[in-house]
């Protein structure tokens, strides 16, 4: 569906500043929303919000439905008297511009355990009632909490390496382990309750201030997840090892000469279709409970996907397989109504992928970092944009604009300067922000790193690498009044600011 002309910012909550080593849903999140209002922005895009596993990638989560406990605000737990001020004194000494996950995770998990213990030991009647209602309304919660408790009990090992009877969910073993891990299961449920309570409050604050939140659905789920463990019939798994028999990825492209072998298991699409796509409907319905719009990652995989057989070390030796995208989105539309979906249609895009996107009127994506390497026919150049699309300077997988411009070949830099009629004194990041906002495209998203004019050191992710990603944070106070004023001026100039009536933003 086409959307009104607007603009917004790309920032994952882990990137907020704060004293606990990782961004969370506390005071800085609300200050960020205030900054968005001040600068005339109407869209806040986040990465997947699920609990991350190895490598801390939000695209490899332990659940497609659950939230990441690392994002829970400890200050809000203190306000509920689940933690004391002296408990929070542990959160000192962290680096302000990066996340040291190896230090943050054990510290924060320890405090979250303490908060749960205090909840169980204290008297919190209203909180207990809200927790009970939450548990009754989340169909995915029991499997997820059980999965995480089992994972803790097996020292973090992947589920397919657990004892066979529990890996295969045999009823007697399930009952035995549920009894044994009852307290830990409840703890993981409580953490989810806290996450979604805090996130819902933040989302409401954003919505009340005219800001919509764009969530992110990765097309695939991690093999080491509650989704696969609790729904093994939905995936191609090796019957003996329970490893993915067919793995997801993409062939060689702009990001990698050997392609990207993601390792996620491929869906049993024919079986899903026969079941009326129930798993997908639940996934989208859950997502729409806590975001307003959904960016669907790797959209082309709903028309045809790249599958690689077990045992391959790169994605080079794979094949394209047709997917039932039309049938899936029709089922979703029949069940959920008109779909507020944005299609990530980057990479190898064929006419049939564009046909699927346009059939359902999903906006596609245009990346300005891709615009200047192949002449005037490049579809990412602004004069080739269409209205029903979403324009970025760059995404979480790109370098920052300053880093991109610094690293590009000389002939491309000359093309950039010529296209824009020379560069301003404000810096390439503001020049590209202006170019994006001036596009005919209905929507524009700017990574916060570009607002701040940061270089490669602030890059969020480098595809096909496993270390040093997802760790960037901005400094407290970095989003200044001057930046807000300049962004508002440009946003208003190019017709993207909220309509102003009676001296207040609608």
From TrEMBL:
One of its GO terms (molecular function) is 4-alpha-glucanotransferase activity. Keywords: Carbohydrate metabolism, Glycosyltransferase, Transferase. The keyword Glycosyltransferase applies. The keyword Transferase applies. GO terms for biological process: carbohydrate metabolic process. Pfam families: Glyco_hydro_77. Its EC number is 2.4.1.25. It comes from the Bacteria. Gene3D superfamilies: Glycosidases. It catalyses: Transfers a segment of a (1->4)-alpha-D-glucan to a new position in an acceptor, which may be glucose or a (1->4)-alpha-D-glucan. Belongs to the disproportionating enzyme family. This is 4-alpha-glucanotransferase.
